[in-house]
Each structure stands twice: as structure tokens, then as C-alpha cells.
Amino acid sequence: MSELKEILRNRPPVETAIFDFFKVGPGPSSSHTIGPMKAGNDFYNKISALPDDLISKAAEIEVTLLGSLSATGVGHGTDSAVLAGIIGNIPEKCPGSVLQDIKKNPEKKYEIKLKNKSITVGLDCIKFGPVKHDSPYNNTMLITLLDANRNNLFEVEYYSVGGGFIQWKGWKEEERGKPVHPYGTMKELHMRLQETGLTMHELILENEMSITGLTRPQICEKLDELMDVMYDSVKRGLNNVGKLPGHLGVWRKAQAILEQYKTNNFEADRLMGKINSYAFAVSEENASGGVIVTAPTCGAAGVIPALLYAMRNDMSLGDRALREGLLASAAVGMLCKHNAGIAGAEVGCQGEIGVASSMAAAMLAHARGYDASVVENAAEIALEHHLGLTCDPVGGYVQIPCIERNAMGAIKAYNAVLLATAEKNTQHKVSLDAAIMAMNEIGRNMNIKFKETSAGGLAVSVVEC
Q: Domain Serine dehydratase beta chain spans what residues (predicted)?
């Protein structure tokens, strides 16, 4: 643990932009769907810029999926996603119907233009390679441009590192502005708040302006757009019924849960039931390939929208408070990504549902007007009680246990706020930095079969029982 403390002490500041962290795109997985689509599109852009003599020799593209991308790629739609990217789609403008059409027509070929050259690609270009490999990230893919004799003309090794973020061999972070109030840990964030007298959302806003060059009104407008996508995903999920895609035969339950509890005689049950239904709604939309917001991932996309929707419609919080709460949630989520991880393939589901619950707790506490210490404590409680959570999707689908876990994460976030606001700040013993540090250590030592490969845990016991 002393090694981890030293790592935290020497961490550079968080430089992630809010709208890189929160992404709009089709489900069911940020690391297995959105990331591969971005990689496929990036590869297409790279080969389109190759010299004419290389392009003239191009005959085919081959994609090899490694690690958990190979193990659960079919259930997560990775093959369809990377192909969608290669033929020109980007996540934020790709309706779920594109991926569904590719799946429904597995033999279909698609023509892509490389200057004056045309080549065809299809699902048969996607190969499922070994789960165990030597690349630095579990979610790895090799995309290769080949000539007619299958000689390698150009190749990129991509890494889908969680939350829809991608990197590649030789990748360097994009040069842009630096945060005006730098922090790399929650302890440092408190120091900046004390030095400046700013609230948490104001500090995050000023950093975003400095990093991206966006104005305050532009940031607020983009936040409202993100929240509208979240609200819409709840509404769509509540209106849809039937079975989810795949062979598991999982039925949508969001609408039934809402109907069961919206007229319940017990006020507490009504609120909890509604939050559950909202989380189910978004998670079911994600599982069916619908458009959602990575918050921080697709697999955990139901937690924050569930609380946000309830805060707006059941707790009567105004849009400004919701926007400010979402900024506070971003601060927590970016710290988790910065100092541990948010990909199930890297740290287990503690980095997905656990981080989402922590972010949601921070959002609710801040939106209700509590100070930064209470916001931290709420976030810490929510994260602490997800530590060790494995990522073990049954059949490789983001359905069992993922959908129910989103509801549990939302309820835990609400309860974390109740606990944090009922205690004296001086009596709280565990910092958010300590919980993140624990998540990092647990994730690094977690067996790979519990990291999104569907090779252990519930994924195995459900099948065997």
C-alpha cells in the first residue's frame, strides 16, 4: 500500500475534459462497443492519409480482437462496432440501428473509399484472437491493412482503456490547455477549493474552460444536452417492453417496476421503486444497443441518469442544481479514472458500477447544497461498498447481472448521501483517495477471469446451475 501512496503523491494533475469523459453513443459497452468503433474510424482516417503507392496495393482490412474484446466481443457487439467505425461511423452520431443492421446481415459487404481505391470489408474481417496476450491493456485490437498476398501494409495496435477512451501503440496525449486549478487527488482538490474560495462546480467549470477553450455558456449548453440524452434514455426505456437481444431471454422490467411502485402506499418505497425503474430503463436501453451517455461507462450508464431523473421529477431540484451536481460528479469520476480505472476489463465492475455510484452520490450531495467535505464523504461511502465487485457478465451480454447492478448502484448512491449528511465530517474516517487507492490495488490483483471475460463468477455459476 505504501507503493500506491507514493504513486498517488507523484501523480500529475487531472487533465481530462468533461465532454471526453461523458460520451454519447450506442450501447452496450463503452470499452467493447464505443471504444472499438472509435478505433475502427481512427484506422480508416489513418489509412486514408497513406501515400498513394501504399493505397494502390491495398486489398483488405483485418481486425484481431484480443483479451476480453475476444472473450465477450460477440455479446458486446464488438465485431459490429469496429466494422461500423471502419465504414465511417462515429459513436456520437451512430444510431443503434446501424449496429443492429450489421448483426442482422452478417454476410453483407461494405465498400470503403481510399482516395481512388475501393476495398470491401465485412464481419468476416474480424478475427477473435487469444484472451491471454502480452499487450499492456486487456482490451487490445490489431487492425491491419493487407495487400492481395496478405502482406502487411500498415498496422495499428489499439487499446480500449475504458469509458470509450482509446489509445494506441505510440499514443501521446493531445496537446491542449492546462487546468487553471490543478489537482491529482481529492486532497489536492480540497486545497484548491480552500485557496480559491470556489465551490466544486465552479472550480471544475474554470478548469474545463482552461483545458478546452469553451466559454461558460457553451459548457452549460453542452451539459444540458448531455442531461437531455440521459432523460431521453430513461423515457425510452420506460416505454419499451419485450425481450432484450441475445439468447439469454431477459425481459425488460423497467415499465413493470414503475407501475408497481408509483402508486405504492409507502412513500419511501415509491421513491426507491422509481429510482430502480429509471436505472433499469437506461440499462435496458443500453443492453439493446440504444443511445446512452457513458457515465462513466455504458455498462454503468443507468446509475447517474436514474438519480438525475429522480432529482428533477421526484425531488423537485432545478436545472441549475442538476447541472452543478453533474459537474461535481465529473470531478469524482475523473479522479477515479486518473488514479485507478473505470474499465471492467482492467479493475472489475468496482470501476464501473462502483465509480458510477460514487459519482451519483457526489452529484446528489452537491445539488442539495452540501459542502465539498460532505460531497467527498458521500462519494467515498458509495465507492467503498462496491470494492471488490467483479465484472462477470453472463454470456458476455451486458444484462445479467449488469442491469440489476445499475439499480443497486443508484440506491447505494442515495443511501450514501443519507449516511454522509447524518454524520459529523470530523468523524468520517475513510477518504475518497483511500477508497480509490484500494480500488486500484484490488483491481491490479483481481484474477483476469473476473474482469469482463465471462470466465468466472456469476457468468459461470449461472450457466452451470
A: 18-169
Q: What does the block give as the cell for 115?
A: 482516395
Q: Which helix (H) or strand (E) holds 110?
A: strand 110-114
Residue 9 zone, left/alpha/beta (φ > 0; ψ -120 to 50; rest)? alpha
Q: Look at residue 114 in the predicted model and tell me its pLDDT.
A: 93
Grade residue 231 by pLDDT with cuts at 50, 70 and 90. very high
What is the spatial distance between Cα 181 and Cα 203, in angstroms, rounded to a whole number? 7
* Spatial CB neighbours of 4, under 8 Å, sequence gap ≥ 6: 437, 440, 441
Q: So what's the architecture of 30-162 in CATH?
A: 2-Layer Sandwich (3.30)
Least confident window among 8-12, 40-44, 220-224, 381-385: 8-12
Q: Classify residue 347 by burial, with Cβ atoms within 10 Å: 0-12, 13-18, 19+.
A: buried
Q: How many CB atoms within 10 Å of residue 224?
A: 13
C-alpha dist (Å) from residue 343 to 68, 168, 201, 299, 364: 11, 16, 25, 9, 24
Place of cell 484472451: 131
Q: What's the rounded mean pLDDT across residues 219-240?
A: 97
From the list 311, 455, 324, the residue with the least C-alpha distance to 391 is 455
> What string of DSSP letters covers 122-191?
-GGGEEE--SS--SSSSSEEEEEEEETT--EEEEEEEEEEETTEEEETT--PPP-PPPSS--SSHHHHHH
Q: What is the spatial distance between Cα 10 and Cα 7, in angstroms, rounded to a whole number?
A: 5
The stretches of 348-446 forming alpha helices (DSSP H) are 353-367, 372-384, 402-422, 432-445
Cell numbers representing residue 279 in the block: 436505472
C-alpha distances in Å from residue 225, one per residue of 222, 230, 234, 293:
5, 9, 14, 11
Q: Cα separations (Å) of 350 from 345, 358, 424, 450?
A: 11, 10, 27, 11
In whole angstroms, give the CA distance from residue 295 to residue 160.
16
Q: Tell me: the pLDDT tens digits for 177-224? A: 999 999 999 999 999 999 999 999 999 999 999 999 999 999 999 999
Q: How far apart are CA 361 and CA 348, in angstroms?
A: 20
Asked whether the whole model's pTM tops 0.85, one would answer: yes
Q: Give the separation between CA 334 and CA 397, rounded to whole angstroms.
A: 26
Given a contact cutoff of 8 angstroms between Cβ atoms, the answer to whether 100 and 55 are in contact is no
Domains of the chain: which residue ranges? 2-22+180-464, 30-162
Residue with cell 471526453: 20
How confident is the model at residue 264, as a pLDDT? 84
